[in-house]
Amino acid sequence: MSKSTPDKIVEKLKDNLATAENNESRGLLLIEQSIGICSSSLMELREWVNQNNFKDKEEEIHFFKVTKPYMLVEYLYFSKLFEIEIRRPVTTVRVQKRYLKKIISKAQCFFNENLEFYQYYRDKSTHLDDKYFVRHRTINCLTACRFIVDPIFSTSHDYTLAAMQANEKIIVYCKAEIRHLEELGRASDLQRLLLQAKLNFKWTGSKTDLMEMIYGAHGTDSINNGNVEIKELVKGYEIFFNIELPRFYHTFSEMKDRANRTKFLDLMKKCLIKRMDDADEK
Fold it and tell me: How far apart are CA 231 and CA 234, in angstroms?
């Protein structure tokens, strides 16, 4: 019997992705690292299934509807992201926006091609779970041919579910990139040069620590009296600290899952109090 569990494998995946995001790697290198992390975790999860039995049908359904798709979503998302960025035209804002809009259209076509199941997923239905997320002798889902079909590690719709969720993330990513391109288009060349000349600060802590500070500032309505969206605030911090924070919504989800949700803010408070105490003693 394997000592690991699906939940532990998922947690390790989250930790490894967070570690990769917080290091100095950026762009395609970070995406490649993330693909490798997801691939290793899926192999580990597959090994667990080969060595263990589910205690009942409900546990099997949860595994193939929640646990495996979570990992597969990350793998498919980063794989598609790599394809998007490696093929992304290095040209005008207009051409890049058109390219990204085509990707959004293709993702939406996938939903239309699987409309019945997509509605089942969107409605959070459960009445067909024993058909969709329990292993059977044959797999009839046509989209499953896009992935390695292992009858021990696959059901008819676990891949389709993961592909839908990955496409949803891709759409969010592409829309954010389009907004970013529009912002760049509105800024004059002179404005960009001024920003680059004046701002010489570099964030040397972890990206997760910075996101704690950003969400903290946003939550207290301390900037523009709260009349600013989180994505705009993130962009401002990116410019100010010369850093990229491409997956800040994902980082926020990981922060919520930590035992200490405000580790960096707690450390800031502790350091500030110490500095005040030291000043009082002088």
Answer: 5
Confidence class of residue 60 from pLDDT cuts 50, 70 and 90?
Answer: very high
Number of Cβ within 10 Å of residue 121's Cβ equals 19
**pLDDT score of 188 more than 80:** no
In a domain, 166, yes or no: yes
Residues 176 and 203 in one domain: no
Is residue 226 very low, low, confident or very high in pLDDT (cuts 50, 70, 90)?
confident
Domain count within the chain: 2
Q: What are phi and psi of 126, to 5 degrees?
A: -135, -10
Radius of gyration of the chain (CA): 22
Q: What residue numbers bound the domain in which 217 lies? A: 189-281
Does 133 share its domain with 34? yes
Q: How many CA atoms lie within 13 A of 215 on its CB side?
A: 19
Would the pTM count as exceeding 0.70? no
Contact (Cβ atoms closer than 8 angstroms) between residue 9 and residue 49:
no
